[in-house]
Design brief:
It is globular, with a radius of gyration of 21 Å. The protein has helices at 9-17, 23-41, 49-62, 105-112, 155-162, 179-185, 219-229, 264-267, 273-288, 304-319, 338-349, 352-365, 371-394, 417-422, 428-433, 462-475; strands at 44-47, 74-78, 116-121, 168-172, 188-191, 212-216, 259-263, 292-296, 397-401, 436-444, 450-457. The protein is 39% helix and 13% strand. The chain has a domain at 4-255 and 437-475: Amidase signature (AS) enzymes (Alpha-Beta Complex). It has 484 residues and is of the alpha/beta class. The longest helix has 24 residues, at 371-394. Helix 2 (23-41) packs antiparallel against helix 3. The chain has an eleven-stranded mixed sheet, sandwiched between helices. The protein binds glutamine. The site of glutamine (GLN) has 13 residues, from loops.
């Protein structure tokens, strides 16, 4: 039998409910693995060992409860989910030692479903980045190659899943932060529709784009994690009332009845040869399975990077205004007067990339520039949304790459933000539209690094999206155990 930490979430659930092992035994396997690989990959900012063991012991005392969808399952949450009794840093120095007085709805629901929260995972500061290198705390390494980034911003979540520390993790995706690290680390990541999962108690980045979602090693595991947290929340006015679907009982659709749209704007760009090879073979396998492929145009996609980086920075600049050194986190008194306190706290509390985004966003919103930047970007966002509606009117789903390159060496783009922004072209459009997207491994490239592919659907079609994912999972080769 496999080590317990290597079981999928649903396999672990079966074992727990059948009493083949206890929640505490599963947790021991989790921490044994974490002790072994955390020194190599550093996926976590805070490890909640004691609390996790006492939770597991309480669960075991009461015995398995099948009504709780995640009973006894160890999970991690990205360090933007507020947790009572545990620090929440958002990867920023400005929130060092911040102990929230309340907790995110996602965390409350995970606990209510019997999950055991084992750690808060590393991320780019305030989720701004694509490599986790902008974390103020540590460097997270890719389990497939320790000299490479895990992607980001939910890089800690993805690295922990692929290194088999846990079977389930929660991240957030504002412009790709679930799907891209999932792709670079070889796991499955779901960005649900905007509004499907409550954002209450999640440190805000771009409020019209942010969405929380699961990462796991299989599509069905993502379904189980989504089922545990999705649904309306009185504490988040943007959470949707649209009825939930059954994300647990998933069956693959008939391949012959499916057509996937391939946007030329995303498929005809430049790719690393090792990525291209995997994507080409994935397309071939899809066709051999009888699924229809249809090349289409989504002509506004080339503008999505500019559009996103104006809107996301603008929203970030407003959301981050609250970190003034008075109400939250780190305070630097400066020269003693109030203005100097604001300036010093923000200058020293925020990292370089975060400051860049605040400056960009403030500029785009300032009077005289608002129409030229923010308003224009909001208009282009609508056109991109129309491209999605049109594409999804002609096909069941859109199929796209996730990243044109595989996990890159540390430092490749940290001094070249525009190139790094440009790399997000495959994932940002979906957030501008608001639909749902699933990234899953298509195979390993010649460089030994995983390559992901993404399927996207209309809003609130997570069930059929996950079902499509189960079909692709059958078609694509499954990944071996990572080398660590
Ligand atoms: N890489 C994108 C950014 O830096 C997306 C990040 C995210 O989805 N949180 O904004």
């Amino acid at each position: 039998m496999k080590n317990l930490n290597e079981l999928s979430l649903l396999q672990a659930r079966e074992g727990l409910l059948a009493k083949s092992f206890t929640a505490s035994e599963l947790l021991e396997a989790t921490f044994k693995r974490m002790d072994q690989v955390e020194p190599l990959i550093s996926s976590c900012i805070t490890i909640l060992r004691e609390k996790a063991f006492s939770t597991a012991a309480e669960l075991d005392k009461l015995g398995p409860d099948p009504a709780k969808g995640l009973w006894g399952i160890p999970v991690t949450v990205k360090d933007v989910f507020l947790t009572k009794g545990a620090p929440t840093t958002a990867g920023s120095k400005i929130l060092q030692n911040y102990f929230p007085g309340f907790e995110a709805t996602v965390v409350t629901r995970l606990k209510a479903q019997g999950a055991v929260i084992v750690a808060k995972t590393n991320l780019d500061e305030f989720a701004m980045g694509s490599s986790t290198e902008f974390s103020a705390y540590k460097v997270t390494r890719n389990p497939w190659n320790l000299e490479r980034v895990p992607g980001g911003s939910s890089g800690g979540a993805a690295a922990g899943i692929s290194a088999m520390e846990v079977a389930g993790a929660f991240g957030t995706d504002t412009g790709g932060s679930i799907r891209q690290p999932a792709a670079l680390c070889g796991c499955v990541g779901l960005k649900p529709t905007y509004g499907r999962v409550s954002r209450y108690g999640i440190v805000a980045y771009g409020s019209s784009l942010d969405q929380a979602g699961p990462l796991a090693r299989s599509v069905k595991d993502c379904g189980a994690l989504l089922a545990a947290v999705a649904g309306p929340d009185g504490k988040d006015s943007t959470s949707s009332q649209i009825p939930l679907e059954d994300y647990l009982n998933l069956s693959p659709p008939d391949p012959k009845k499916i057509t996937l749209a391939l946007p030329r704007e995303l498929w005809e760009g430049k790719f690393d040869p090792s990525v291209k090879e995997v994507l080409d073979s994935a397309l071939q396998k899809i066709e051999e399975a009888g699924i229809g492929l249809k090349k289409i145009n989504m002509k506004h996609l080339p503008y999505s990077v500019a559009t996103y980086y104006i809107l996301a920075a603008a929203e970030a600049s407003t959301n981050l205004a609250r970190y003034d050194g008075v109400r939250y986190g780190v305070r630097d008194p400066g020269d003693g007067d109030l203005l100097s306190l604001y300036k010093s706290s923000r200058t020293h509390g925020f990292g370089k990339e975060t400051r860049r985004r605040i400056l960009l966003g403030t500029f785009a919103l300032s009077s005289g520039y608002y129409d030229a930047y923010y308003k224009k970007a909001a208009q282009v966002r609508r056109l991109i949304g129309e491209d999605f509606n049109e594409a999804l009117g002609q096909a069941d789903f859109i199929l796209a790459p996730v990243s044109s390159i595989s996990a890159w060496p540390f430092g490749s783009f940290t001094e070249d933000p525009l190139t790094q922004y440009q790399l997000d072209i495959m994932t940002l459009p979906l957030n501008l539209y608001g639909g749902a997207g699933l990234s899953l491994p298509a195979g390993l490239g010649g460089d030994g690094l995983p390559v992901g592919i993404q399927v996207t659907s209309r809003p609130f079609k997570e069930k059929s999206l996950l079902e499509m994912g189960t079909l692709l999972e059958e078609i694509f080769p499954s990944l071996p155990h990572p080398p660590i």
